[in-house]
Structures are given as C-alpha cells and as structure tokens.
C-alpha cells in the first residue's frame, strides 16, 4: 500500500481548512468540480420555505438585491445564477438569512438547487432551499 508523504497530506489539510474558513463571496458562484465554471446571472431566486412546527410551506420569488420575509426570517438574495443550456442544468443563489428571534446571521453563502444538503440553513423551525432562478 502506497502512502502520500506526510508533508503532502498536511499541505492538503491546510488548503482545505483555508478554503472552508474563507468568507463566501456573492460574486463568485460555487465550483463543484474545481474547474472554471460558467454561470449566467438571473434577476430573481425561487425559494421554498418550510415552517417545521406548523407544517406550513411557501414559495417565494425574490429579486436579486432585495429581501423577503417568512415568519421571523429575513432572506436577502444577493445573486442568483444558472448554468448555460449546453451544460447540465443547475441553479445557485447567494443568500444571507437572519432570524429576528436570534442575533446574528443564521446563514450566509451559496445554496445549490441540485444539492441542498451541501450548504443549508440549519434552523430549528425553518427549512429553506433554492428551487431555481428566473430571468
């Protein structure tokens, strides 16, 4: 069994931690495979929100640069992008979510429609996911 040198392994861990700790940017859409990605900007994000306590759900269309409110959540959509038609369909939105009942930001970053578990709002009452982007 061949093993990577310890220095190489340590360098890989440092790179992973650095990437994970970097603040997400609304200007740089997510890259899942490490290659240069092409994303097309859209004007609004389609979001699905679920109140887990009351089993109430809704769909929100939020223009980029604006906010929407659902229960105690304030959802700020800073960017919404899709893949071009010649690539596999995918949508992602950069969101900042705050809760009026708690101080601070509940979520900030990219949510990818096709992989909701990759980056998700962790909240005891609400669930939020991106459905897509509209022109």
User: Main β-sheet, in a few words?
Assistant: 5 strands, antiparallel
Mean pLDDT: 81
Order of SSEs: HEEEEEEEE
Structural class of the helices, strands and pairings? mainly beta
Low-confidence spans: pLDDT under 50, at least 5 residues? 1-22
CA gyration radius, whole angstroms = 17 Å
Distance between the termini: 52 Å
According to DSSP, the number of beta strands is: 8
Polypeptide structure, described:
- This protein is mainly beta and 135 residues long.
- Helices cover 12% and strands 43% of the residues.
- The chain has one domain.
- The protein has one helix at 6-21; strands at residues 40-41, 44-51, 56-63, 67-70, 73-82, 91-99, 105-112, 126-134.
- The N and C termini lie far apart (52 Å).
- Mean pLDDT is 81; it is low at 1-22.
In short:
With 135 residues, this protein is mainly β. The chain contains 1 helix and 8 strands, in the order H-E-E-E-E-E-E-E-E.
Topology:
Layout: H1 6-21, E1 40-41, E2 44-51, E3 56-63, E4 67-70, E5 73-82, E6 91-99, E7 105-112, E8 126-134
Antiparallel strand pairs: 1-5, 2-3, 2-8, 4-5, 5-6, 6-7
């Amino acid at each position: 069994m061949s093993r990577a040198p310890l220095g190489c392994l340590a360098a890989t861990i440092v790179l992973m931690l650095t990437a994970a700790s970097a603040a997400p940017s609304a200007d740089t859409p997510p890259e899942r495979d490490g290659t240069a990605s092409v994303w097309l900007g859209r004007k609004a994000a389609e979001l699905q929100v679920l109140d887990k306590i009351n089993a109430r759900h809704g769909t929100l269309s939020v223009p980029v640069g604006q906010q929407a409110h659902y229960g105690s959540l304030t959802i700020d959509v800073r960017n919404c992008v899709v893949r071009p038609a010649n690539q596999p369909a995918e949508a992602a939105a950069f969101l900042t979510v705050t809760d009026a009942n708690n101080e601070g930001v509940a979520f900030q970053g990219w949510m990818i429609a096709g992989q909701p578990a990759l980056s998700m709002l962790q909240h005891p009452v609400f669930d939020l996911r991106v459905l897509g982007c509209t022109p």
